[in-house]
Amino acid sequence: MKAVAVTPKKQNSVRLVRIEKPKVSDIKNGRGVLVEVLRAGACGTDREINNGEYGVAPKDFNFLVLGHENFGRVIEIGKNVTELKIGNYVVATVRRPCGNSIYDTIGMQDFTTSDKYFERGISRLHGFMAEYYVEDADFLIKIPPAIAEIAVLLEPLSIIEKGLKQAADIQERLKIWHPKTAAVLGVGNVGLLTVMALRMRGFQVHGFGKQAGSGYLNAKLCESIGATYDSTDDLPLIESTKNYGEYDLVFECTGYSPIIFDAMQTLNENGILILSSVTGGTRKTDQVPSDKINQMFVLGNRAMVGTVNAGREHFEMGVKDLALCEAMHAGWLGQMLTHKVVGLENYEKVFEILNNSTQYKAIKTYFEVGKI
Ligand SMILES: [Zn+2]
What is the CATH number of the domain that holds 287? Predict the structure, then answer.
């Protein structure tokens, strides 16, 4: 079968490979599920792996099949699979337990303390930019047919859901927490999904980006779901609290780490800042009012937490938000799917769009591998 692969740590090595089609019997406990890939999403992680920044090939391979954002259809099941049937739509989670940390042994591998990750399409396991994959049913999330068209957005959404779940867990310290306002920093595909998830929870949401709002699809999507959008060139984040008040929750997804220090200064008392950008660079900043920030966090009981990867419960929360959003704002999520590329053999087009996403005005680029 066809798959899109890279040689990890080698720049621009993306190519089409032919590998053996997996079999249900590859999973030894009878819990194997063979899935036909219908869509595979592409994002900055795939771009960075193809840039040679990170990525690890599976044992005995000198290449890594890419793809962690996925959506597919069950075509065969093992004898011990009771929760899925042939024809069901599914999305697979990404990280697998490695067994070296207590969190891996209790099914919370998204909180692993091991730095040896096993992640499909990223580290040590082949990904979903392929015609088929086989997986243990434990790692598959069943998708209602009503959200099939947009379910390729579930994996990126799951990271946000984990952030919001952690915020809710941390804020249990307050016994009562009724947050009203939120700022979302960055309105790319992760930011827009965050705006959506917060609107589904009833927050007043303020989205911020670099680009001017007029004619900017991402700004329009913020506004059409009831959020505001401002360019930080017109309204710097710190100034924005004069218009909107201090935020109960701030969600950072710009990829530009210096902004987190501004974000800390916009939090309300007892507020929480969630960080989701993976910034592998070496950027430093000395423009930090450290006394002020420290005082705000100490005297105002503010908190900050990072979110990465996601467990089954976060994917399941995401399914509910996608369904609720489709019910409340039919077609909104579909507008995020800006760039469809038909066929894995057209991988060069996908990477061209990823490398020039601003020019292409791309929100989500994805392969259509099979028909829904
Ligand atoms: Zn991704």
Answer: 3.40.50.720
